[in-house]
Every structure is written in C-alpha cells, then in structure tokens.
Amino acid sequence: ALLDRIESTDPALHAYVATFRESANAQAQMVQKKVDAGEGHGPLFGVPVAVKDNICVKGMTTTCGSRMLYNFCPPYNATVTDCLEQAGAVVVGKLNMDEFAMGSTTETSYAGICKNPWDPSRVPGGSSGGAAAAVAASEAFYTLGTDTGGSIRQPASFCGVTGIKPTYGTVSRYGVVAYASSLDQVGTLGRDAATVAASLDIITKKDPKDSTSVEHPDGGFYEGLTGDVKGLRIGIPTDYFGEGLDPQVKEKVLAAAKELERLGAMVEQFPMPLVEYVVPAYYIISSAEASSNLSRYDGVKYGFRAENYEDLYDLYLKSRSQGFGMEVKRRIMLGNFVLSSGYYDAYYNKALKVRALIKQAFDKAFRKYDMLLGPVAPTTALKLGENLDDPLKMYLGDIYTVSVNLAGLPGLSAPCGFDGQGLPIGMQLIGPAFGEKTLLNAAHAYQ
Ligand code: GLN
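That is the input. Now the predicted structure with glutamine docked in place:
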C-alpha cells in the first residue's frame, strides 16, 4: 500500500530517487512469517522505512545525489541498514538529497529537485529534503537522514515533521558516504516525537566498524517518553532571536516555550555568545574535511569515469570535472584553500579554536539548563531557486543548526505552528551530550 501511495504522489514531489518493490515485498513476506511465528517484536516491527541516498543498502544503487556515484552499487549494508533489517523494518526505497549532502534545499541533487509537499513552489529544505518530504506527504512512516550541519533538523522544520540529530558517535557512520567525518551523524525523521524515539532506538548502537562509535549511556528513548516536563530547566539563547529571524518564526517558537512552561518547565533567557562565528567555522571545517573525503573519487576505483581521456592525470581531471556539481566543487576548492600551507593557521586552525569555544559555551549553558530551545532556521521554506545563486546567503540560513554539530550534541526539530502562508515552522531543542531522552520527551509532551 505504501509503494502504491509513493507511485501516485511522488512523481509531483520527487522525494524518492528509487523504490524497491520486489525486494520490499520479499522482505515483507519474511517479516510476516516471523510475526506469524510469534517472533516479531518492537514498536516498528514490519513497518516500512526509507533511507537517504547516502546510506548503503546492499545491492541497491547509492548515488548520494551525485553523477559521481550514479552507478555505485554497494556490496554491503551500512550498519544502520543492518539495524533496520534486524528490527523487522522493510526498506522500500532511497530518498532524494543535495549532492554529497552539501546544501540546504535539495536543489543540487543530480537526480533532480525535490519539492515541499505543503507548497510545491518551495523547497523541502536540505540536505535530507527527500527524507522530510516523504514523511510529510505520507510516503513514509519514518525515514533515516544524515545531519552534518542541520540536514535533518532544517528539512524537518520546512516540512512540518519531527527529526533528530543524535549525539556524535551514538549512531554508526559505517556505510554512510562521508561528507565531513567529525560532524556527520545519522538520525531519524517521523511524524511525531514518539515515532522518532522508537526509530532512534533501532539505530543507536555501538559499532566496532566505526572508530568514533560510543555506547549510549541512556538509551531506551521510546520507553523514556513520560510526557512529564515538570521542573525541566529550559534556556532560551537570546542571541538566537536576533537580526535576520523571521518575526513569525520568533513568535511561534517563543509561544512553544510558553506552552512548555505551562506544562511545568522553567523557562529562562540567557546570552549565548559566538553566534556570528558559527557559520564561518562550520564551513571552514566541513569543507576542509570534505576536500579530503572526496579525494577518493578519481574515476578509477568506483563511480563515474569520463570518456576520452589522454593519460591518468587527464582521467582524474575529466572524471572529477564532469562527475561533481558546482556546489561540491566550490567546497572542494574552499577546503583545499583553508588547508593549504600559507592559510592553514589563519583559517583551519582558527576555526578549530572557535569550535572549542563553542563547545565551552554549550558546556557552560548546560550547567544551568537541561535543554535549550530556539528556532531551527531563520525562515520558513524558501521558494525554489531563491538562494541558489547566492551561496553566502544560503550558508547563513544554517546559523542556528551548525553549532550543534560542531559541539557533537543532540538536536531535535519539532513543528510548532505555521506562518501566514500556511508554511510549517519548527522549534529546535538542544541537549547536552547523550541528552536525547530529554529532547524527545519534551517534544512528546508538547505534541
Ligand atoms: N546546509 C548544510 C551544508 O550545506 C547542511 C549539511 C548537512 O547537514 N549535510 O553543509
């Protein structure tokens, strides 16, 4: 039934880049047998799922939204895919995304743009635009996305769904195409906090195949949904409500804080420093790591290979020139620049210092508060093409999300109303490391 739904509504949206009817049916039958034998367990056993196209599913093309990987068919599963299958989930397809997860609108995808189900003249956000749009359009019950600098939270906000970026290291990155390894993290999106909690339980696991993987000391997110927020100390960073924030977003986010207060939480405003430095620090660090990670695409080992090359150098040059899109090239050049010998200290090292200061600022805030609450993005969903020619403007839209990745913290995006045009607005909940339960429970109480 879900595949039929996708077939009827997705041509207008393009949230999916591929669906797997045959393998999904086979998987569903296996799951049914287990259920009949009384073996099925867990709240999402047998529930279909779809994953962002940078997550490997054995034998299924994983393009990462790029021509460079248009024919890449991984011979193995990502660890998160294994987790899903073990939990009885049926993987029905792969979801559209910005090329190599670089972008905020899902407009840089080689597969073609994805549209916002609330208003098809607008973007769904990005880079996990397909993952958010699919949930919003009832083309998936829950989805897996990745968040390097807001890519789960911002599309969740633009599409009016709930999404979580977990604490760095608590979900395996094995089999997930690398963008910026010190920031990348897989998370889940769903209609509500309960779905997101149940699905996050499935993929939260220490994995020996990922060297940055850690055991979550406070798992059992679904069980942890008490709906009780009495005494919860919530900090509102005043600097997240400054210039550039749409007044309608501000109003709805502050109204959500009031609602949590009514439910028994204690809400207080406090100054959060360094906000003007987070976007430059993020783009320096993420591009530096991307330039290194993407050096593996040389036209030789896998993926796209140009035709008619003269020698090995020419093969590299032509394959990378033709295989990567504009935004990816921009980041590779920026990354190589900030890592080059004359500029390393001035940019890359400086950005690392800013990153350390951002972490300290969060540490300080979490000595006083259990959770922070603010906007996810300065605006609601942009018009298609609105910022496409202005990368700096596009990057500034990440101002509230990227610091969470720089500090490795959990961040959740939950719908908190609509603007005057009927477009969804999201609020962001930020927790200390391993504080997912607090965020999910607060969102659940609110919902
Ligand atoms: N807008 C961010 C970027 O373009 C999103 C990255 C992400 O989280 N994958 O880098």
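Residues 101-104, 127, 146-151, 179, 286, 398 surround glutamine (CB under 6 Å).
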